[in-house]
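With this grant's support, we have settled on a layout for protein records. An illustrative entry appears below exactly as we store it:
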Amino acid sequence: MPLLPVAYTAVLAELLYAHSGEMAGIYDLRLGWFTHVNPAGVQLLAYPSEEAFLADPNHSLRTPPWTPEQWQHLCDITRREGHHELEADIRRHVGEPFRAYVKLTYCEIEGRPLLLVNLTEHSRLQQAERELAHSVRRFEAVFTNATLGIIVCDRAGQMVSANARAGLLFGYAPAELLGQQIEALVPDATGRHHAQLRASYNADPQVRNMGHDRPLAGQRRDGSVFPVEASLSYFHLDEELYVVAYILDLSAKQAAEQALRTQHQHVARLNAELEQKVIDRTNALLLTLEQLEKRGDELALALQAEQKLGELKSRFVSMASHEFRTPLTAVITSADLIEEFPGSHQQAQRLKYVAHIRTSVQHLNNILEEFLSVGRIEEGKIEAHPGNLNLDSLVHDTVADMQGLCKAGQTIDWQVECPIPVRLDASLLRKILVNLLSNALKYSAENTVTTVRASCQPWELTITVQDRGVGISQEDQAGLFEQFFRAPSVITVPGTGLGLYIITKYLELMGGSINLQSILGEGTTVTIRLPLTTPD
């Protein structure tokens, strides 16, 4: 045992060796065990001497023992708060454990952290008193904080206890109710023979609800009456009967029920009005259906007229295209002849205008060619004629022909991976590819790359054309394959709005499909798929 300073020893003498009936010991937090214990502690823990207890550091006070972590947690709490109390089952060195009340107090003496440990054994009387105190506190908590009124009366009907909610319901302070007769809270108690009813209940007390056969009411201090729900119970104390009344104010409930009944009546009226409206609307619909049936024949005739109009439009387009082609051919021939005249000081301007004429004529020729293609498609004059073809050569030649449409810095990156023979309509396939490349170049800026990829599987040809152009918004993509449709993002670029429509019709003739994906401002990717058959 280490030597202790004089001041430390004086404190121990005061704390440990006083005539105490409970254990008092000093626990050194650094050593992890007791350094002193008083005689009452030695006797309580059944050790032969203080030296035997202090020499037993493996002993644990509690049974089952505290783990090191649990004991450290208790020490930390005591050190932080200065004091901590708890109940625990305490082990003896010899004999049965006992229930004890443990008090831990933190202190420091000359810088050494210590715990003053006090143990008091619980006797049966102390345990009963403690349990009774707990029971009283629980009762008081329930009684005081209950959300319904509670009143206790003796056999004579005199109120001996009332909680705060009961006083609030009847307009009294709880103390003002004590000593009054319960009839003070019952309206017309005399007329209802309440005293006789109370005597009857006292003769045969039971736990029961009241007012199941008639409504109940309570009377406030100011004389006003309000609806209540009440139930009764009882208990005996020292052979004296006490009756407990539990009272609930039904004012809000009855108001809600009345509001609900009013609402139900309102809903019933609305339902009746709605049913009448449904009947009226049904009759109106039946009349409308009769009128629609009469209009059916008229619509059928109108549809036939529309079909004839469509046929006339197609014939008109074909006729107009042929009529325009002859003078346009003469114009382009004349432009070629002008270009061959010998030069003069105005020859450069002449050549510039000649180029304008040629470009304009070619543009008109392309438009008329598209009109003519639509007319032939709608008249059923275009058919697919599959034949063996060299896909690599077809793509190469088409890309070469499109170089004249490239803007400054534009390039076409193409690649064909098709190790198997292909049998398709070369003319239609070339027109599809030309149309796709024309759109990609037209709607892309200078110094951009248009990508063409073609690949074959034994059963399918896939061609993808991807540009980095203006793109098309999601809401505009739905109308891209309709005749003459042009998206707002490309409305300033010349075009007819027939290209994708014609491509779709060509693909239908060849049994293929088209898919378009586009993001506004980023570009467009068009993928076509065509079924392949075994070449001859």
About this structure: Residues 335 and 354 are 6 Å apart (CA to CA). The chain is about 45% helix and 25% strand.
